[in-house]
Fold:
Amino acid sequence: MAKIYEIRDPVHNFILFRDFERDLINSQPVQRLKHIKQLAMSYEIYPGATHSRFEHSLGTMELATQAFDAISLREPEAYQKLGWTEAQRQTYRQLLRVGALLHDIGHPPFSHAPEELLPNGYKWHEDFTQALIRSPFIQPLLNMGVATLNVDQVVAVALGQEKYPQDDPSIQLLQELVAGELGVDRMDYLVRDALHTGASAGRFDYHRLLNTLTVIEHPINDSPVLAIEAGGLHAAEGLILARYFMFLQVYFHDTRRIYDRHLVDFLSEVLTDGRFPKELDKYLQYTDDWVQLKILDASEAGRQAELAARLIGRNHFRRVLEASGNDKVSFPQLAEYVHGQFRDLIRIDEAEKQAQSIEPEKIYVLGDDGVPRDILEVSELILMLKPMWRARVYARRDVQAEVARACNEFAAPSETTLNE
Structure:
């Protein structure tokens, strides 16, 4: 009998795994995630936000398993709709766990912040995730479990339908469980980020949501599709609201965003040709620790030292203007006007995110009468949420007042504020 290992987790209490998964967890790409912070330099604003992609990956694997098992326990015939034998059900369960565990292994240092510095041909961190899963670091380990896992299917589950489209309904279901609008990746990062930042806005009843997941026949094409029972609707809305407010309060926080910009500026100077390498063995050497050592070493006078000082001395540029809502139309002209005067003395930042991207006929709510209805027709809340957009002008401290005056001269419709 295979040995069962356990890890204590501040969100899920215990995360269990077996020998095969232990080998994957001990692999270099997964262990590297211990040295990649989940929220980049957000710890400068939220001191507790030092958690890593490693614990999030373990948590995503745990929640994926809970979702899969909840469906199986509450409605055993749900998997029969997919035409699975019991052996196939076990294989797909393992595939789901592995895809969830590996979904973030391609992240650069400090997570999303420096993705724009990935090498040519690598647009997203998911491109490195796919390459690493197919590499000798991971692929040989996929053949050492109870069932040999198909590497293409592992990639599909790890990347999701948006980044790696699939036609197989079984794989689509697993992709939806991990990376869908109500997927466990999103559930884990919201509750985990809320815990470590102290932002209660990220909390919602994910246990209720997990326990109301089911599989139904699509009302239009009869293919199996993920659905939620009527009792889970408010929990699903809670997830969408939690994400909405976490973006507005945490992920779009003005100081957090300027640290991202300064980090990219610094890495553009220290990386060869201003980009991370394509070679996987070299890429895996780049972690938050490597970046922080480079920052500390940049002590001599010069461009690198100036950029490093912004990161470690809280000498970041200060916000002098914030725009939202109706300002979106006029902001590009204002940004061009101010940049033309101040160039490198300012930074312009725009952050935008859809409140939700649920497509019609994609997620269904199974009513008490047994009739599935599109969640967009049932929920009174989801369609009310507007896209999130924030734009800021930041300035070096010694020119804050001048930049503010220039913004006023342009007669920007938003309120100009000095952030002392």
Remarks:
- The chain has 17 helices and nine strands.
- The beta strands are 4-9, 13-18, 213-217, 224-229, 318-324, 346-353, 364-366, 372-374, 388-395.
- The two ends are 63 Å apart (CA to CA).
